[in-house]
Automatic annotation (TrEMBL):
Pfam families, A to Z: PETase
Keyword Signal: yes
Signal peptide: 1-22
Keyword flag Signal: yes
UniProt protein name: Acetylxylan esterase
Sequence ranges assigned to domain PET hydrolase/cutinase-like in this UniProt record: 61-252
Domain of life, per lineage: Bacteria
Entries under InterPro entries matching the protein: AB_hydrolase_fold, PET_hydrolase/cutinase-like
Keywords attached to this entry: Signal
Length: 289
């Protein structure tokens, strides 16, 4: 196992081994006190434990926990790309949801996000503010755990943004065609809509098949059209949240949703009309009994 995703997985495996050898209740007690973003169990679709603030600026809109770092925790980053002609406000409830889960979302304001320039600049801004003692973000940003995500044209941008070595995982939602997965080296969760007539599921599956060099999971949301993810994310909200919590927070509650022989989403025919994991994704261990 090699590359960025291998190192990330190694850290996650170390975390679960440590938890298994800890005294009963030790990990949970630590999580509830200091240094960790609280668990949400497996309730991925409900609001998380944080109240949310929003700053609308010229280049980005930032969604973030109101009381960042209140337990001494650091907050991972999600950079977001909009669909063609859209702005972050179209997806505001979804982006607020992720912020309520403990993430800082840097959403590029551009309606033409395909090349991910503004998305990647969001990381630059947060790096600067994390180092700025006068900023509310000072010392509270987890710059070692960053995801790219987006819808439609922004989904292609999520793939393109993942060429940035600072990005650790990608979540392209119904991604447009102008992207090259061969240039990325992160775990990726591709999402399609069963009834999407703009970005056909076959196009998203092609991206998935072309991502055989990294762990790749393909999920097709049952009954979803192309606009089903706007607003609060609809049925895309819970699985994307679980994926982000696993890869950015090391949330072991989310591992079994995607990985192992008994993965929960693998058998969820009510939510998914299509599901696939490539060879590298199948090699990631599931939840230890």
């Amino acid at each position: 196992m090699s590359g960025k995703w291998g190192r990330a997985l190694g850290g996650l495996l170390l975390a679960v081994v440590t938890a298994l050898h800890a005294a009963p209740g030790t990990a949970a007690a630590a999580e509830e006190t200091t240094g960790a973003i609280p668990s949400v169990g497996t309730d991925w679709g409900s609001p998380g434990p944080y109240e949310v603030d929003v700053d609308i600026e010229v280049v980005h809109t930032f969604y973030y926990p109101r009381n960042m770092g209140q337990r001494g925790e650091l907050h991972p980053v999600i950079i977001w790309g909009n669909g063609t002609g859209a702005v972050p406000g179209i997806y505001s409830s979804l982006l607020r949801h992720w912020a309520s889960q403990g993430f800082i979302v840097a959403a590029a304001n551009t309606p033409t996000s395909n090349f991910a320039l503004s998305m990647r600049a969001g990381i630059d801004v947060l790096e600067h503010r994390n180092a700025d003692s006068a900023s509310r973000f000072h010392g509270k940003v987890d710059l070692d755990h960053i995801a790219s995500a987006g819808h439609s044209q922004g989904g292609a941008a999520a793939i393109n943004a993942a060429i940035d070595p600072r990005v650790d995982t990608a979540v392209p939602i119904q991604p447009g065609p102008l992207a090259d997965p061969d240039l990325m080296d992160e775990p990726v969760f591709y999402l399609a809509g069963q009834n999407d007539l703009t970005v056909w599921p076959a196009l998203v599956k092609a991206f998935h098949r072309d991502s055989d060099h990294v762990p790749s999971v393909y999920g097709e949301i049952r009954g979803a059209g192309h606009l089903a993810s706007i607003g609060d994310g609809g049925d895309f909200r819970a699985p994307t949240t679980a994926w982000l919590r696993f890869w950015l927070l090391g949330d072991e509650n989310a591992r079994g949703m995607f990985f192992g022989p008994g993965c929960t989403y693998c058998a969820d025919g009510d939510l998914f009309s299509g599901w696939d994991r490539n060879t590298k994704a199948q090699q990631i261990p599931g939840t230890t009994p």
